[in-house]
């Protein structure tokens, strides 16, 4: 059993359309919201004064690539083709399961810092240098990429897609597959 917590005196944004309580209290019991309302009574709860703050439900992100958090700014000026070749075909092939795990964990913490508590994680880098043709079974074990989804205490789903084809697939297509000139 966890300690009861009362978030007291804030501006509470509820899930009811157009309802904002000010001042609003939120009682958390056993890790779940038990009550929302003005001036709640909870003598045994630890009181946290949130006056002057907005208290609201967590945000939902339906498209995030948490594994890429460790290379987040490397492709900010790349075209889509440069991104697919430079990251998906280029850098991603050097990721070990441990690298994907830490990328997912840091990406989850980054999301939480932004107020995102639920997300759909497009984790399509489940390949390892030794298993380039199919997803690694090592990536599904404890301490691996999927287990990092819960390590940061977040709710998430996982999306995946087929791997990006090798650059030779683009030969003669007219697509720009040359490496980016910056950010490498």
Could you say how many structural domains there are in total?
Answer: 2
Report the span from N to C terminus.
Answer: 50 Å
User: So what's the CATH class of the largest domain?
Assistant: Alpha Beta
Helix content: 10-25%
Radius of gyration based on Cα positions: 22 Å
Q: What is the 3D shape?
A: elongated
H/E order of the elements?
EEEEEEHHEHE
Uncertain runs = 133-143
Question: What is the CATH topology classification name of the largest domain?
Answer: TIM Barrel
Say which CATH homologous superfamily of the largest domain is assigned: Metal-dependent hydrolases
The CATH architecture designation of the largest domain is: Alpha-Beta Barrel
In round numbers, the mean pLDDT is 77
Task: Give a quick account of the main beta sheet: strands, pairing sense, barrel closure.
Answer: 5 strands, mixed
Q: What proportion of the residues form beta strands (DSSP E)?
A: 25-35%
SS-based class: alpha/beta
Q: Total number of β-strand segments?
A: 8
Count of helical regions: 3
